Amino acid sequence: MLITRRTVLGTAAAVATLPPIRARAQTPTIKIGVLGDQSGVYRELSGPVAIAAVRLALADSIAAGRDVPVEIIIGDHQNKPDIGAGLARQWIDRDKIDMIIDLPNSAVALAVAGVCKELDKVYINSPGATADLTGPQCAPTTVHWTYDTWMLAHSTGAAMVKAGGDTWYFITADYAFGHALERDTANFVTSAGGKVLGSVLAPLGNTDFSSFLIQAQSSGAKVIGLANAGADTVNAIKQAGEFGITAKGSKLAGLLVFISDVHALGLQTAQGLVVSNTFYWDRDDRTRAFSKRLQPAIGTARAGMGQAGCYGGTFHYLKAVAAMGVAEAKRSGGATVTRMKAMPTDDDCFGPGTIRADGRCLHPVYLYEVKTPAESKYDWDYYKLLATTPAAEGFRPLRDGGCPMIHP
Q1: Which among 75, 71, 147, 72 is positioned nearest to 108, based on CA atoms?
Q2: Is residue 106 domain-shared with residue 205, that is, in the same domain?
Q3: Percentage of residues of the chain with pLDDT beyond 90
Q4: Nearest Cα to 275, choosing from 254, 305, 261?
Q5: Cβ neighbours around 29 below 10 Å, total
Q6: Helix (H), strand (E), coil (C) string for 91-150
Q7: 220-239 pLDDT, tens per residue?
Q8: CA distance 83 to 274
Q9: Strands ordered across the beta sheet of 361-362
Q10: Domain extent for 58
Q11: Do 72 and 162 share a structural domain?
Q12: Has residue 383 been placed in a domain?
C-alpha cells in the first residue's frame, strides 16, 4: 500500500479505508515492514491495532507536510525467532524493506535486531520488552520505544516493595522476555531489602496456571510476580481469582499489563492491580485526540502502549526521513537512526522526548491503579494515576546498560 498526500489528505478517517493504489511518479519509496503477532498470544497488544497505528502515523506525517511515499508490508512472526528472523531477511533482501517495526516477543525481537544490524536497516521495537536491546545487544540500527524490563521492574516492582511487598515468588514466561523481567525485578526487590523466595517457569501460551499458582501461594510470599504478558497474564490473573489467591493474603503484581488485558479481565477481576504504562488513551488531551483519530480503524478497541509505540516510532522515523531525503535514508539504516537520535521526539502518544545514544527512547513512566467498577464512568475508563516518573529517571541509566556502543 502506497500512502501519499493525494490518497490520505491528512485525514484520520482515511486510515481505516486507504485503498491499494499504484505509486505516482515519485521515487524512491520508503518501505516499512510491520512484523507482529497477528494470530497468537500477543495479538491483542500487537496485531491489527498496531498496523492501524502505523498507518495513522503515515497519515499524520503527511498532514504535517512530510509527503514521503511509503509502502507497508505486514507479517506474522508466530512468536518464533527463526520465522521472525527469516521473514526480516527476506523482506530486506527481496522486498527492499527500509524499516521494521512492532515485534512483540523478546526472543523474536533480539533475532530481528541482529538481522537489521547485519543488513544496515532501521529496526524500531515497541512491544518487545527485553532491556538487552539497549544493553549487551544494542546496535546502531536499533531504537527501543515504549518500555522495557528494567523500566517495568523499577516502576512496578519498587512500588510494591515500598508498599510492604517484601517477599516475592515469580511465575515467569519461559523465554527471553520472562527471564529478563524476573531478573530485573528480582534485582530491585533484593536491593530494596526484600527477598525472592522462588520462581517457576511457565511455557508461552500456557492455559492452566493452577499448579504454578499453588506453588507460589505455598511459598508464603506476599507478592506473586507475573513475569509474563498478554493472554498468559490474563489467564494467570483469572485463575488466581478462582483460587482465591488474593483473598488468602497474597498480592498479584502484573509486571507487564496492557489495557487490553484489563478489558479482557473486566474491572471486577482486575480492580486494584498496580500497573506501569507509558501511554494511556485517556491520559490527556493529546492522547485522547490520537485515540479519536485512530478509532475509525479499530472499532470499539483502544490502543495499548505497545501499539502507541508503533505510532510514535513510525512518526519520528518519517520525520527523520523527510529531513534527510528518501534516497539518503534508504542508503543506510545506521545513518537514519543517527539522525533520529539527533532530533527530539514529540507525538500525541508520548509527548516530548529523546532517543539516547544506546537507542533507548526516553519519555515519562506512569504508575496506575486499575479502577473499581464503581469508579469507572465510561467505556475503557480503567486507570487512575498514582505516580509519574520523569523521562530521565524512568529507564536504566546509560552507564549501567553495558551497551558496547557506549562502553566498547
Answers
A1: 75
A2: no
A3: 86
A4: 254
A5: 17
A6: HHHHCCCCEEEECCCHHHHHHHHHHHHHHCCEEEECCCCCHHHHCCCCCCCEEECCCCHH
A7: 999 999 999 999 999 999 99
A8: 35
A9: 345-347, 351-355, 361-362
A10: 2-147+282-363
A11: no
A12: no
Q: What is the pLDDT of residue 243?
A: 85
How far is the C-alpha of 39 from the C-alpha of 230, rounded, in Å? 12
Q: Are residues 86 and 199 in the same domain?
A: no
| Same domain membership, residue 66 and residue 42 | yes
100 domain residue, yes or no: yes
Same domain, 243 and 356: no
Number of domain units in the chain: 2
Residue with grid cell 493525494, as numbered in its chain: 6
Residues in the chain: 408
Residue 186, domain CATH: 3.40.50.2300
Per-residue pLDDT of 329-386, as tens digits, reads 999 999 999 999 999 999 999 999 999 999 999 999 999 999 999 999 999 999 999 9
**Given CA atoms 351, 356, 358, 364 in this order, what sign does their dihedral have?**
negative
Closest by Cα among 78, 112, 90 to 205? 78
Same domain, 9 and 85: yes
Residues 154 and 143 in one domain: no
pTM summary value: 0.91
Which DSSP letter does residue 384 get? E
